[in-house]
């Protein structure tokens, strides 16, 4: 089966994430607090909190820091209350953008979003203006050379929706958000560890950008990523070599 993603773009995206790893603690703390506030502090009964704590441990966050933020969110300690707001808009060449934020001041956040987009060639859209171009799902991506037959067998048995392979040989497993954790655990139990594994907004179509347009789009994405209230940026731009 042919997938929409190219391995070079996947590696590019992972590289950009690695460059920004110093900011991951701030984002993970907010995710832990919102997950605990909305679903409770019991890790065994809160899948979203489990995933957030997993991210925190992967970023070498101390256990006491994790516990302190869970306690803040569940009312055991005084802390800031964050709310989740999703923004939709357009970037260079009509590329669609979804930005997930967590903020304690929505007036500040929307002003920063609007300014960043308009200053760098994009524009803020209304709710639903681009979301229809994306699928909310779990996504696990394996490097070329991974056994497609093994991934497919384990993933589908564990409840995955689909397994896609792109021309470079990268393998993408797509799940419902609720099934992501079970599929991920089954694959890892079989010795299959994904290069990227996340609950995400997966683009259903892509906009190819190259040269100056690609550079401008990357700058816009970097600006959005660097906003303090931004948790995740999703887009359907595909950067050509």
Describe this structure in words.
With 241 residues, the protein is an alpha+beta fold. It has three domains: 21-73, Integrase, N-terminal zinc-binding domain (Arc Repressor Mutant, subunit A); 83-131 and 205-239, Alpha-Beta Plaits, CATH 3.30.70; 134-203, 2-Layer Sandwich (Alpha-Beta Plaits). It is 42% helix and 23% strand. It is built from eight helices and ten strands. It has helices at residues 7-19, 24-39, 47-58, 63-73, 106-119, 148-158, 180-189, 211-225, and strands at 83-90, 96-103, 123-124, 134-142, 162-165, 171-175, 196-203, 207-209, 230-235, 237-239. It has a four-stranded antiparallel β-sheet. A hairpin with a 5-residue loop joins strand 1 and strand 2 (96-103). Helix 2 crosses helix 4 (63-73). Mean pLDDT is 88; it is low at 1-5.
In brief:
With 241 residues, this protein is α+β, with helices and mostly antiparallel strands. Helices cover 42% and strands 23% of the residues.
What profile does the largest beta sheet have?
4 strands, antiparallel
Number of strands: 10
Topology as a string of helices (H) and strands (E): HHHHEEHEEHEEHEEHEE
Q: Hey, roughly how much beta strand do the residues contain?
A: 15-25%
What distance separates the N and C termini? 23 Å
The radius of gyration over CA amounts to: 18 Å
Please tell me the overall pLDDT.
Answer: 88
Number of domains: 3
Work out the helicity level.
40-55%
| CATH superfamily (homologous) name of the largest domain | YebC, transcriptional regulation domain
Low-confidence stretches: 1-5
The CATH architecture of the largest domain is 2-Layer Sandwich
CATH fold category name of the largest domain: Alpha-Beta Plaits
Q: Tally the helices: what do you get?
A: 8
Strand order of the largest sheet: 3-1-2-9
CATH class of the largest domain: Alpha Beta
Oligomeric form:
single chain
Shape: globular
